[in-house]
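Weekly structure sync, notes
Attendees: PL (lead), two postdocs, one rotation student
Agenda item 3: pending single-chain targets
PL asked that the sequence for the first pending target be pasted directly into the notes so everyone works from the same version. It is reproduced below exactly as submitted, 506 residues in total.
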Amino acid sequence: MKLHLLSPSSCGVLAILSLMIKESSAELQWNVKGSPTMLSDTTDVCSSNQGRTSNCEVELDIPASCVDEDDTSNCPIVFFLHGAGGSNNAFKQNSDVHDNGVIGVYPQGEDGWNTGPKNSNECDPDDFDCSSDPDEGAFVASIISTLRDMGANGNIYAIGSSNGGALANRLGSNAGNSIPIKGFVALVTQLLSSPERNGPGVLNYNQPQGSTPVSVLNVMGTGDGLIPYGGGSSGVFGGDASFQLYPAIQSMEVWSDYNGCDTGNPIEESVTTSQGDGTGTFYRYPNCSNGAIVEHYAIDGGAHNAGGSSFNDISARDIQYDFIRRCEESDPTDPGPPPAPTPPLNPSPTAAPVYVDDDTLPGDCVDDPNWHGKANTDHNCEFVAARSQRCAWESTDGVLASTACKVACNTCEDVDDDNESPDDESPDDADDDATEDDVDDDDTGDNVDEDDEVDDECVDDPTWEGKYSAAHNCEYAAEMPNIRCNFVNSEGTPASEACKLSCGTC
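Predicted structure, written out during the meeting:
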């Protein structure tokens, strides 16, 4: 056997071919839950970035509902950032991106993220020209650029815990053209008050620098012994006194000021928690001039695991996705309350088809095969049928699902000569020619008078609205009942009591 040596020119050709293969294979392809693709295998996001070793990898998790017919996507893109010494391995199972219709990005850090002093660093923190240590800003920016080239056009978000939360704060602080982040969730860490910047590159500032709106959700425990709620130094800085943390509330005030919110008058609400001593306080900074959302949960007595706490029996992950949903709904040009809600973030369209006997339905009682929700073409009448609350969704033309999807929404009798509201008559209790008084007892198995009494009580209060926004009415609560039905109005009445029909609490 002969050993054929490659000339330098041949090696150059192979390198170019390898790069071309990677670029040609970098397409937006959906995957099943639990089996993300390896973006770092088909692109150069690891090989071309400073400070990345063989440990570097980037997983890309794309639900089928997030890939359009032209192989592009407008779904939100969420970076999930592990803590120091952690791994990206678990995100494919616990990120819930397939249940919430977002694209998940799971990068692996180099023994964590280079947001402070690290034993593995070769350069001083203030050596911004360092060419060996990880440049986290450039790394994330290159991933975003690659995703844009692949056709992923959605807004950018990040969810990070501990050291990952520090990187989330760093990304928000350097928001702009290279890192167009719309919002982030930082768990159990806050902003650094000093130094102003550290680490290689130019995307390394530790406090917000630009003018791009950045929404912030922060969760911290007041009893955290590693990252102190009251700020100051931390053992994670290895004794380097130049690294200091803001007190948690002051960190939120920095973000509030940056986003033009009413910093001096945060709205406070007591909450129950599953960490710490079981209680906490929710802070919301209102009237942000650029449409941003700035919120903070303080868990009384919570330790460094407080980021996993539920609030008012709502899981941490549901809180995080509700934050992203509200960011998607917000209008940065409108300083007023957020607009009426759009449907949830592209949930996976797995509803079963609706089968009906055409002989039993009036001639005009059909589902419009061309109707779909304004957020996703997959949100058709079959998708609406799986959940009654979706009948309040509308198309891009403003046509409600309840109007277009009569079979799916059971609204064949909604429009009659008396122009009754759908809430005035239950489809199970009437037909085209009958009134509620004509319903036979056998239709329900109960006395008609008893049914009428239940129907009268099972209604939504049209005057109820959440204390944070007039747009947060019963229809809004119906879009995410497991979360929004816990909202209260200015008098303390929860949606679950006022919006019985929407919340299913009749």
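Discussion points:
- The first strand starts at residue 37 and ends at 38.
- Residues 185 and 320 are 7 Å apart (CA to CA).
Action: rotation student to compare against the earlier draft before next sync.
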